Amino acid sequence: MREKLNRSWISLLEWRREKMALPASPSPVAMVWARQGRLQQRYDGCYRLVSGCIPYTLKEDAVEEGAGKQSCQQDVVGRLQVLMISTPKRSDLIFPKGGWEDDESIDEAASREAFEEAGVKGIISATPLGEWIFKSKSKQNSCGLQGACKGFMFGLQVTELLETWPEQVTHGRRWVPVEEAYGLCRYDWMREALDRLKDQLLLLESSEFRPLLSSEPVGSPSLYMVVPPAAAGGATTLCRC
């Protein structure tokens, strides 16, 4: 009898334990947030160091066989589209850029900004488009070097276009033909960067390396990818303006 009662109590306890057990919690979703603050910001003297990129893609539009060199160059520029981003209360557009921090390389910083501000991943060239000196947005009208930035820009061939990204509330995005982008750029130095991008792509077109041709960016598992310069001595001379 005692053994039978013990079995009954055990069964009752197990039944209560099952009823009172909390449902299993779903595995936490990995959330990605944009970096904030300037605790890790790099500086060069009085200049805040900034890294950014021009995300681009080449639309498929094969050149007829036997076309000349000039036609090939026109074809590259004609198929080139760049991704620009918007900011609140402004009608003009910019390219992804932001502070270069001390735990990342300069090309990693440019790729990170493209992900955070424009929601894209891709292949970034190890050859920069150039170096520019400019004022931060909030210090455009200040005197002296207050708010001065030294910015480095890269070309980034987009391989993945994300549906959601960290700063999509404040940054919309828009694909535009490169020639249309000149009229949308907020600053003159960005137009110069577009010139450098076209020159760099034409250099790649004449070398053994060919950029991907795609009407739509394809999936890519990696955020940071770097390709070597197209040829020895092919690095763009840095400029200041």
Write up what this structure looks like:
The chain has 5 helices and 9 strands; from the N terminus they run H-E-E-H-E-E-H-E-E-E-E-H-H-E. Strand 1 and strand 2 form a beta hairpin. The relative contact order is 0.20. With 241 residues, the protein is of the alpha+beta class. Strands 1, 2, 3, 4, 5, 6, 7, 8 and 9 form a 9-stranded mixed beta sheet that branches. It is globular.
Structure described in brief:
The chain contains five helices and nine strands. The chain is of the alpha+beta class and 241 residues long. Strands 1, 2, 3, 4, 5, 6, 7, 8 and 9 form a nine-stranded mixed beta sheet that branches.
Note the main attributes of this structure.
disordered C terminus; alpha+beta; 241 residues; single chain
Radius of gyration, whole Å: 26 Å
Q: Which assembly state applies to the chains in this document?
A: single chain
Number of strands: 9
Alpha-beta content class: alpha+beta
Instruction: Round the mean pLDDT to the nearest integer and report it.
Output: 76
Q: Work out the helicity level.
A: 25-40%
Distance between the termini: 96 Å
> Helical element count?
5
Give the helix/strand layout.
Layout: H1 2-20, E1 43-44, E2 47-58, H2 69-79, E3 80-85, E4 97-99, H3 106-118, E5 120-125, E6 130-135, E7 148-161, E8 173-177, H4 178-184, H5 188-205, E9 224-227
Parallel strand pairs: 2-7, 5-9
Antiparallel strand pairs: 1-2, 2-3, 2-4, 3-8, 5-7, 6-7
Helix pairs in contact: 2-5
